[in-house]
Specification:
Elements (H helix, E strand, L loop, with lengths): L1 H34 L9 E5 L10 E3 L3 E3 L3 E2 L3 E3 L3 E3 L2 E4 L16 E10 L8 E4 L4 E6 L3 E6 L5 E8 L9 E4 L5 H4 L6 H15 L5 E2 L1 E3 L5 E2 L9 E5 L7 E6 H6 L2 E4 L9 E6 L6 E6 L14 E4 L5 E7 L2 E2 L1 E11 L5 E2 L2 E8 L9 E2 L7 E5 L66 H10 L1 H28 L1
Parallel strand pairs: 2-5, 2-27, 3-6, 3-27, 4-7, 5-8, 6-8, 7-9, 8-10, 9-13, 14-18, 17-19, 18-20, 20-22, 21-23, 22-25, 23-25, 24-26, 25-27, 26-28
Antiparallel strand pairs: 1-29, 11-12, 12-13, 15-16, 15-17
Length: about 475
């Protein structure tokens, strides 16, 4: 009896060992298959990134033409095309520039990818570049860069029409002594930057995050497109620890009397507002309404207005606009004397006109990251500031240059880099092999090869487990 009991105990131990081997083998096989892409699909992971990283911290970042008429930008200004002076404008009145061109030790306050069109605006126009910032001009063929005055005395740098005298108008005047040869350069790849910004705007338009609601004064839900004229609207459902998304139409924003933030957006709980202007043909004249609860300069860095498919956006008046504007395909015009608390991203921009005094652009750059579900939807490629900078590339293949190939640049410090960055708008990756849907052929080949050792282990464990179980039953049958 004692002998049988000991034998039974041994049999149970062998049986348990065999079962454990089978379980471990099954688990290893499941992990291997799932990692290789042959098992059940895992739930989509949230991709967190700064969608305005390609704008390099500029208060106004424009792809083509910029007109400076009135009044001022607290931070730096960059335009990929020509610059027109059409009034009196102050640039970077506070020392907040975060972008420094290659070879410089001083931040760039005004970057012009094309030329300065001195003939396109008012003859007496002046742009003052303050806080010791530098000026960069891609095409200096029509200007003179002066570092001395008529008496040949060393003075603060000025840019005037070719052949013009010091202090003549129109002019760009610095409050620092920038060397003349440092002015003539185009350090930013605006094409790469705007390819990325457009991809980001498209991805944000379908961002799957915590969708918040518009409610009326009776706290009844108001659907997108359902705001009535002069209706007071509140934003309900904000999560302080997640990306929040509000979907509205341009008509909603013009119809409401106030947009009340019941909870102020924060770095950990930013708010993305997707504005659909398809009902007005992609164009919008916006009389900005009061936004109580947004927090002014405290909440504005965590609000992003996405006008991804808008082709014309004009601020006609009203209150200050709280937050940054992402409108990469829009002709943007500011006719409102009220302020913008954030960044302006546009295709073309007019900051004021001869007849209308535009408001100030306060330096409240977007200061958070947005996390959208990275599943079947298009996800953005990520960018580093260096990837949209035309710096000298030493011993670097052309595919790793400023644009990162045709698909846009790699991730910035807010988004992570390499394979962690999401893909560009067309769901194809660059040289790092990242793909929007996560199923590129190169990725599968690499993943399959890297999983072979684990698959071999799984097969071995299955064999050992099966052998142990068979031996157990054979011994029990012999002893019984």
């Amino acid at each position: 009896m004692q002998h049988r009991t000991a034998s039974a105990r041994r049999a149970r131990r062998l049986t348990l060992a065999g079962a454990a081997g089978l379980v471990a083998a099954a688990a290893a096989t499941a992990i291997a298959c799932n990692t290789a892409g042959t098992g059940p699909a895992a739930h989509a992971a949230a991709v967190s990134y700064d969608p305005l990283a390609p704008a390099l911290g500029f208060n106004s970042f424009v792809e083509d033409r910029t007109v400076l008429a009135s009044t001022e930008s607290e931070g730096p200004v960059a335009t990929g095309g020509d610059l027109v002076l059409d009034g009196y404008y102050n640039v970077m009145i506070h020392p907040v520039g975060s972008y420094t061109a290659p070879g410089d030790t001083v931040p760039s306050a005004l970057v012009v990818g094309g030329e300065v069109d001195f003939g396109g605006g008012e003859p007496g126009s002046v742009a003052k570049v303050l806080s010791g910032g530098y000026v960069k001009i891609g095409d200096t063929s029509g200007v003179s860069v002066l570092t001395t005055d008529q008496n040949n005395a060393s003075v603060n740098t000025q840019v005037v029409p070719a052949g013009g005298a010091y202090n003549s108008t129109p002019r760009i005047e610095l409050n620092s002594k920038e060397p003349a040869d440092a002015v003539a350069q185009a350090p930013i790849d605006f094409g790469a930057a705007f390819a990325e910004l457009r991809a980001n705007a498209a991805a944000l338009a379908v961002c799957e995050a915590n969708e918040v609601r518009m409610v009326d004064e009776g706290l009844q839900t108001v659907p997108k497109g359902g705001v009535q004229p002069n209706q007071r609207i509140s934003i309900q459902g904000m999560d302080p620890n997640r990306t929040n998304v509000l979907n509205v139409t341009g008509e909603d924003l013009n119809d409401l009397s106030e947009l009340v933030y019941l909870l102020q957006p924060t770095e950990s709980g930013p708010l993305l507002i997707n504005v659909d202007t398809s009902g007005t043909g992609g164009e919008m004249d916006w009389f900005v309404k009061n936004q109580p609860g947004a927090g002014g300069i405290l909440g504005a860095p965590y609000i992003l207005w996405n006008f991804g498919e808008t082709t014309r956006l004009t601020l006609t008046g009203g209150d200050s606009l709280e937050g940054s504007v992402l409108a990469p395909d829009a002709d943007y015009t500011d006719l409102s004397p009220s302020n913008v608390e954030g960044q302006i991203i546009a295709k073309n921009a007019s900051h004021g006109t001869v007849r209308a005094n535009g408001g100030e652009i306060h330096h409240a750059p977007f200061g958070s990251t947005l996390a959208c579900e990275d599943g079947d939807q298009t996800t953005p490629a990520s960018t580093t500031p260096s990837d949209v900078t035309n710096s000298i590339q030493s011993e670097t293949p052309s595919g790793d240059g400023p644009s990162g190939g045709s698909e846009g640049p790699s991730t910035g410090d807010s988004t992570g880099g390499g394979s962690e960055g999401p893909s560009n708008g067309d769901r194809t990756g660059g040289s790092d092999g990242s793909h929007g849907d996560g199923h590129g052929s190169d990725d599968l080949a690499t993943t399959g090869a890297s999983m072979r050792p684990l698959l071999f282990v799984a097969v071995a464990l299955l064999a050992v487990g099966g052998a142990v179980v068979a031996l157990t039953y054979a011994r029990r049958s012999t002893r019984s």
